[in-house]
Amino acid sequence: MWFAAFQSYQYNNWLVHLAAKLLVNDEGASSLIAHNPFQGQEPPKFVRAEHYRYTYTKIGSKAAKNGAWWKRKRIGNYLPAVSLQSLKDYMKHMGWPQPRLPK
C-alpha cells in the first residue's frame, strides 16, 4: 500500500473496497496482510488506515545491528475509521456488491 500514500484515499477506490472486504474477513483480502487478528472470529466493526513516513536507520547504528532497518513516524490518519454501514452507499455508488458477513 506504500504507493497509495502518494495520493489521498479518495483517489484510491481499491483501498476503500479492501477495507470493506476486511470488515467481513474476506479470505482474498485477508491473504494480502501478514496477520489477520480476526481470522476465525467475529470480524472487526471498524477499520482504518494510518499514514506513516518511513526512513532507513543509519548503517552500523544500534537499531540496524538489532535488525531494525526502518524508523517510522506517524503522519496521521489516511483512511478514517469506516464500518460496513458507513460504506453501504459508497459501495452501491461504485457498483460493487455489498460484502456480507459470514453466517
Any overview of this molecule?
The protein has 103 residues and is an alpha+beta fold. It has 4 helices and 2 strands, in the order ααβαβα. It has a two-stranded antiparallel ribbon. The two termini are 30 Å apart. The mean pLDDT is 90.
Secondary-structure-derived class:
alpha+beta
| Mean pLDDT rating | 90
Principal-axis shape equals elongated
Largest sheet: 2 strands, antiparallel
What is the strand tally? Answer: 2
SSE succession: HHEHEH
User: How large a portion of the residues is in β-strands, by DSSP E?
Assistant: 15-25%
Count of DSSP H/I helices: 4
Low-confidence parts: none
Characteristic terms for this protein:
two-stranded antiparallel ribbon; 2 strands; 103 residues; elongated; alpha+beta
Protein topology:
Blueprint: H1 13-22, H2 27-30, E1 47-56, H3 62-65, E2 70-82, H4 84-94
Antiparallel strand pairs: 1-2
